[in-house]
UniProtKB/TrEMBL annotation:
Principal location listed in the UniProt entry: cytoplasm
A GO molecular function held by the record: rRNA (guanine-N7-)-methyltransferase activity
The species this protein was found in: Silvibacterium bohemicum
Subcellular location: Cytoplasm
Pfam families with a match to the protein in the record: GidB
One Gene Ontology cellular component: cytosol
Matches recorded under NCBIfam families: rsmG_gidB (TIGR00138)
Protein name, UniProt field: Ribosomal RNA small subunit methyltransferase G
Protein function: Specifically methylates the N7 position of a guanine in 16S rRNA.
Keyword rRNA processing: yes
Record-listed E.C. numbers: 2.1.1.-
Amino acid sequence: MAAPADTGVGSGIGGNGISSGNEVTAGEIESSVAEAGLNPLAPGVSAKFAQYLELLLKWNAKLNLTAIRTPEDIVRRHFLECIQCAQLIPPVASLLDFGSGAGFPGIPVALLRPEISVTLGESQAKKAAFLREATRSLGLSASIFDGRIEAMPPSQQFEVVTLRAVDKMTAAYAAAFERVAPGGWLIVFATSGTAERDTAYFAPIAWEAPVPMTGMSDAFLLLGRKSE
Ligand SMILES: C[S@@+](CC[C@H](N)C(=O)[O-])C[C@H]1O[C@@H](n2cnc3c(N)ncnc32)[C@H](O)[C@@H]1O
């Protein structure tokens, strides 16, 4: 799948209330969430996002975890998109973030939806190490699956599987579908160029109307339910 489109909220430095320095305060994150029209975060959650951002910047300088590098872009493209996703997830008990990378959307989901048991699946060792450190520092109970999702025991299934910017789409899709429990949800981050292909690929899934990403001109969330 293509990476999320670079057409987000705001217009670069200062466009979403984020200053150009390397520090982003909890207040600035709350303002960005409000400007994007998303529901306010629960008390304490914006401070956790500020801490997550600091960790990302520190590790990204050495390990190249994400190509989105500046604080304002990380808030605008990674955080806001994933916060919107977390707020849309139906009431469920378990979620697999397939190809979590630096934690998107799994870590924002774990921060916003502590009732969900989140598994962050990531095959690259350096990214899995970051996920371990990030979840430890942020006090999250999310587990890390350090390997290819295809290697999970066949019986391991989840009520929600998220897919965001995962490459080798055909193989990833087949593996993701296997991990969705009967009656569970698949949530795909898509653009107008991929939405039709994505929904067509997962034929046995009943798709809801694509949800436009807040403040984005060409990004959608696809939510589909696997039959019982
Ligand atoms: C482009 S990154 C996107 C990461 C994150 N979802 C995001 O939106 O920023 C895709 C990640 O998926 C991981 N990945 C791809 N196929 C995988 C598989 N079959 N099992 C586990 N991880 C996988 C890659 O190692 C990579 O870190």
